[in-house]
C-alpha cells in the first residue's frame, strides 16, 4: 500500500466521491434540481486523477489541468462523476462543473503534495492519509452542522404548497420582498410571539441573577473554608447533576398543582434557578480555588471582614468567570423546555420554547413552526457568537451538565 | 517540666470560619433540599401509591344551586355531591343566605335549620359517589327574573373534605408489580441501553475526530470552533423540530435528496419505522452532543506538553504513532470521565426523544416511559415507580463515576 502509484489513485478516488457528493447535495439544495453523483464513475475518474497528480508533481502541470477539464466536460454527457437532469439550466451545470473541478484540483494538490510516485516512507504515506481525512472532516462536520440550520431558516421563508411540491427547492424568490417574512409577521401578530420573547427574556435574566445570588456565597464557602462535610458537599453537588429532570418534574408538577403555582411565571422563576444553582456553584468554586489567597489575606489583614473581602476583592477578580457562568445559565434557562412544557398551559404565560411547542400541530403550517424555531435560536446564537470566548470557557467548566 | 503540645481540636477561629461557611451555604442547601431532596422522597412515596392524575385534587363536596318550577311549585334546589367516586368525605356542611322577600312554604328537611335568614345544613359524612338533594319550596312576591338574580346572588358555601390518597398511610407494591409484569419493561430497558451506549460512544468518537481537526492554530479556527458548537447551543426544541421537518416522509428534504440520488426508490419514514427510528434518535443524540466532547477533548489536547511531541519527532515517530502512543494515552483520562458523564446524561435524556418521536416506533426509553405512564396513561404512581428504577440505576452509575473521577480530578 505504501507506493505512490497506489496511494494516489485510492485517495483520489475517495476524494472525488466526497467532492461529488458535496457538490451534488449543495447544488440540489441551492437550485432544487436533480444532481446525482455516480459513485462508480467517481471512483474511476478520481483514481485516474490521483495517478496523474502523483506522477506530475508540478503544482499546475498541464496533465493535471487536462484531467480536470476532461472530467468537467464529461458532466455534459452521462459519463461524468455527476449526472444532471435533462432539462437543467446550463448555468447550474457550469457552476457544478467548475465547483467539482476546483474541488478536485485544489483538494488533490493539497492531499498529494510531497507524495512521490514510487515507494513512500511511512511519514509521507501517513501525512497524505491525514490530509485526506482532514479535508473530509471539515466538509463532513460543516455539512452536518449547517444543513439543519439552513433547512430551518429556508423552510420558514417558504409557503406550504411550495414545500410539498419540491421539498428540495430552497431558492428564495427575492421579488416577493417582505412577503417572504409572512410566517414571522403572523407569529408576532396572531400568536403572541412578542410576549413569549419578552417572557423568556426576563425569566432567563431573573434566573441568572437568582442563581448568582445563591451560588457565589456557596461556591466561595466550598472553595475557601475548611469545615466538616466540605468534601461530601462538593460531591453531592455533582450528584444533583445526575438526577434526571423528568424524575423531579413529576413531584414538582404535583406540588405546583396543589399550591396553585402551576401556570404561573412565579412558579417558573422559582424552579429554574434551582436547576442551575448546582452547575453555577460547581463552575464558580473551581474558579475561586484558582484565585491567589494572598490578595484576600492582605484584605483581611487590612481589617476587611470576610463578606467585604468577597465583595471588594474576590468578585471583581472573578468577573470573567461570572460572565461565563451567567451566559451558561442564561442559555440553560432560555433553552429549557421540559418544565415549561409541563407547568404552563395558559397561552398568555408561555415562554418561547413552550410557544414553539404549541406550533407543533397539524393545523399550523410547517413554516410557522420553523419560523418559531428561528426566533428561539437567533437570540442565543447572537449572544453566543458575540461572546464566544466566555461561552466556550463556561461550557468547558460547567457542562458536566447536558 | 511541661512540654509544649500543638493545639488539638478546633480553635475559635476555625469554628467561626465553619459557621460562616455554613451560613453562606444555607440558602443553597435549603433551596436544593426543597426542590431536589424533597421531590425525590416524594417520588419514592408516590411509587407505592395507586395515585392517578385525577387524584391530584383531594375529594371534596361540590354544590349546585338552582331555581326551579313556578308559582306554587317554585323551589330552590341545592345538589351536593362527592367529587370522588370511591373516597369518603366527612364534615360536609352547607350554608347560604335566604334572599329578602322570600319565605319558605314548609318546614326545613332533616339536617337543616334556619336562623334569621341564614340557612345551615349538616350532612355529616358522604360516601364515595353519594349525592344529596335539598328542595326548598318558597313563596315570593318578586318577579321571576329578579328572583333568579337574588337567589343566585348569594353563593352557597360548602365545607368538608376527605383524605387524599397521598397522605393515607397504606402502601402497595401494585405499581412495581405492573411495571415488571410482561416483557415490556425489559424492552424499554434494552432500548435505553442501546440509545445510551451508542449515543455516548458515537458522540465521543465524533468529538475526538473534530478535536483532532481543530487542534492546530490557523486563521478562522475560533469561528469554526464556534460553528461546531451550534448543535449544542441551539434550543433543543428548535433543532428537534428541524430534524423532524428535514426527515419528514412527505415533505422532507432528506427524502427528496435520497430519492433524487437514487439511494432509495420510495420515501423512508425515518422517525416512524421500527428499528430505524431508534437509530435516528441515537444519531440525533450524537449530532447534538459531539460538540461537548469535542470541546473537552480539545481543551485537554491543548494542554498536552509539546516537548513530548518534539521528543517523538526526534525519535522518528510517524503521525499515526504519535497519535496512538502519545495523544491517546494522554487523553484517556478525559475520555473516561466524559464517557461516564455522558453515559449518565444520555441515560437521563428525555426532551430529545420526546420531541422527535414522542416515544413511538420503538424509541421509548425509561425517561420517556415515566412521562408516558404518568401523563399519557395518567397513572402518576406507575410513572413514579419507573422513576425509582431510574434512580437506582443512576446510583450504580454514580458509584462508578466517583471511583473514576476522584482519581482523575482529585475531587
Model description:
- The complex is a heterodimer of chains A (402) and B (411).
- In chain A, 75% of the residues lie in helices and 1% in strands.
- Chain A has 2 domains: 4-165, no CATH class; 184-398, MetI-like (MetI-like fold, Orthogonal Bundle).
- The model of chain A has no long low-confidence stretch (mean pLDDT 86).
- Chain A is mostly helical and 402 residues long.
- Chain B has 411 residues and is an alpha+beta fold.
- Chain B has 2 domains: 60-162, Mu homology domain, subdomain B (Immunoglobulin-like); 174-409, MetI-like (MetI-like fold), CATH 1.10.3720.
- Chain B has 14 helices and 8 strands.
- A 4-stranded antiparallel beta sheet of chain B has the order 1-2-7-4, with helices on one face. A 4-stranded antiparallel beta sheet of chain B has the order 5-6-3-8, with no helix packed on it.
- In chain B, helix 3 (174-180) packs across helix 14 (380-409) and helix 13 packs antiparallel against helix 14 (380-409).
- Chain B starts with 11 loop residues before the first helix and ends with a helix.
- Classes of the chains: A mainly alpha (402), B alpha+beta (411).
- Chains A and B meet through helix 1, strand 1, helix 5, helix 8 and helix 9 of A and helix 1, helix 4, helix 5, helix 6 and helix 7 of B.
